[in-house]
Amino acid sequence: MATTALSSADFAQTVEKDGIVLVDFWAEWCGPCRMFGPIFEGASEQHPDITFAKVDTEANQDLSRAAGIVSIPTLMAFRDNILVFSQAGALPAPALENLIGQVRALDMDAVRAQIAEAEAAAE
User: Fold this and answer.
1) Rounded distance between C-alpha atoms, residue 99 and residue 114, angstroms
2) Is 33 an annotated catalytic residue?
3) Domain count of the chain?
4) For this UniProt entry, which residues form the secretion signal (predicted)?
5) Which residues of the chain are under the pLDDT cut of 70?
């Protein structure tokens, strides 16, 4: 599966889907982004059950600001509409594979319980 380009118009509906969604925030002028691009694309071919999406931070500055992007590339991982990972920096292929394995292995009931506990404690 190839990567999908996202904009402000379709970002929310994409990350709100069930399953895993990986989003790469990048820009054409960014050297590390250009290095990470083929790694991200390759992983999308190996994992057709995962949505791989890219946000061009130059073309979507409002979305980048709303997502809190301060450095690129930034990779975000969503699972079942919950942000479970966000980190700036280009990952080597083995690290991306490791991340995908960790996101797949998450106990989402436990994640939701932790979120509920944190929200209750904040009240």
Assistant:
1) 20
2) yes
3) 1
4) none
5) 1
